Structures are given as structure tokens and as C-alpha cells.
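Hi support team,

I've been running sequence recovery on a batch of backbones for a student project. Most finish fine, but this one hangs at about 90% for roughly twenty minutes before it completes. I'm not sure whether the input is malformed or the queue is just slow. I've pasted the C-alpha cells below so you can try to reproduce it. Let me know if you need the job ID as well.

Thanks,
M.K.
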């Protein structure tokens, strides 16, 4: 691709329901900047197709036979040069979504999300922007029963202790669902400086996006009402 050519997002769709796949292919394949390069019926097929096509984004159902979408997401995101993953869910506090986000998924979409929002989400994720807003992250976290809380809290606090004081403040603000502009105002920083701190936090802690920062702050028990 030359600099003058438009960027096309290569996408793999993974769902065990052929009708759902067909609908998604029709919807997303109609976007001029999205190319559906393959479709799979389970996680194992998805892994093989990712190796073959090297897509930018994988749209991944959760509940599938052979290999579910959660396991496939964990395997994919543990690879170098991994594609971004958006998990599909029926919501209603589906506890598996939290596992997918911890594995490095860029967010989730409801299966009844309006078509134009699904198209926009794929574009955003391909550019490195999570499709799960901080506010939705906190609402989801609040609805999920969190097993192994004490062990997870200790581990999360140990990881956050690796941050410098200002980075720790920024991480806490991300966990509080604040935007970069709100963090800048609260901490008397410029927005570019906040972005720099967020990038440093991601690099130090080996995280993929600010959703995972919010999850780590939650796990550490540092949000209001958690102590």
C-alpha cells in the first residue's frame, strides 16, 4: 500500500452461527475501508486463519464449540504482533467479558449493536482505540462477581507499585472513568502530558489499553467504596 492509497482494515469474523456470520459479513463487507478476509466457526479455526491472513482485527464470539472465544483471545493476545480482538456478547453482566478484557481484548460489542456502530468500532480498534468506554468499564466491573479477590488485589497493588507517583495518580484517575482532559484539569497537567503518562503506564505494566488500567485499579481496590 502506498501513502496515497486508503488504509483498509483486514477483518476476520468468528461465530459458530452461520447466519450471524453471514449478517456480519454483509454488514462489514459493505464498508469501503473494511475487508473481511476470512470467517471461522470456532476459536481453533480462528487461530489458523489469523496465521494465514494476519488480520488487523478479529471479531470474536464468546460461546463456541471446540475452542471458545475466550481461550482463542488469550492465545492470540499472547502472541507478538497480535491482531486486535473485539468480543461479542449478549451482555447482561456476562462474567466472561471481564476475562476477555484481562486477556487484552480491545473491548466488546453487543450482538444487537446498530450496524453503523459495529463498523465504527472496528475502525476505532484497528487504530488502537478501545471500544469500551471507561464508564461502561466501571459499570461492567460493578456487576461481575470477582473470584480470588484477595489474591488479585495483592497482585494488582504490587504491579501498580512499579509506577512513579504521578503515573500512579494518572492510573487511579483512569480507573475513575476520567477522560484525558478531566485528568489534566484535576492534576494540573496538559493533555499531552497525560497521554505521555498513560503511554508510560501501559509500557511499564505490559498492558494493551486504558481499559486494562481501569481493571487493574479496580482489582487493587483503589476506587471509591472498595476499601
Amino acid at each position: 500500500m502506498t501513502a496515497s492509497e486508503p488504509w483498509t482494515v483486514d477483518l476476520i469474523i468468528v461465530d459458530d452461527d452461520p447466519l450471524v456470520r453471514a449478517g456480519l459479513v454483509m454488514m462489514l463487507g459493505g464498508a469501503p475501508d473494511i475487508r473481511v478476509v476470512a470467517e471461522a466457526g470456532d476459536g481453533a479455526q480462528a487461530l489458523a486463519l489469523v496465521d494465514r491472513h494476519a488480520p488487523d482485527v478479529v471479531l470474536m464470539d464468546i460461546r463456541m464449540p471446540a475452542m471458545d472465544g475466550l481461550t482463542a483471545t488469550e492465545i492470540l493476545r499472547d502472541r507478538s504482533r497480535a491482531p486486535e480482538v473485539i468480543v461479542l456478547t449478549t451482555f447482561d453482566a456476562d462474567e466472561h467479558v471481564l476475562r476477555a478484557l484481562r486477556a487484552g481484548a480491545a473491548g466488546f460489542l453487543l450482538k444487537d449493536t446498530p450496524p453503523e456502530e459495529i463498523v465504527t468500532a472496528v475502525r476505532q480498534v484497528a487504530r488502537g482505540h478501545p471500544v469500551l468506554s471507561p464508564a461502561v468499564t466501571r459499570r461492567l466491573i460493578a456487576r461481575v462477581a470477582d473470584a480470588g479477590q484477595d489474591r488479585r488485589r495483592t497482585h494488582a497493588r504490587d504491579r501498580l507499585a512499579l509506577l512513579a507517583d504521578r503515573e500512579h495518580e494518572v492510573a487511579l484517575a483512569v480507573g475513575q472513568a476520567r477522560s484525558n482532559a478531566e485528568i489534566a484539569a484535576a492534576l494540573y497537567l496538559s493533555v499531552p502530558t497525560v497521554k505521555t503518562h498513560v503511554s508510560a503506564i501501559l509500557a511499564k505494566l505490559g498492558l494493551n489499553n486504558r481499559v486494562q488500567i481501569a481493571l487493574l485499579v479496580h482489582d487493587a481496590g483503589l476506587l471509591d467504596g472498595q476499601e
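--
Follow-up from support: It reproduced on our side and the slowdown came from queue contention, not your input. The chain has a mean pLDDT of 85. No action needed from you.
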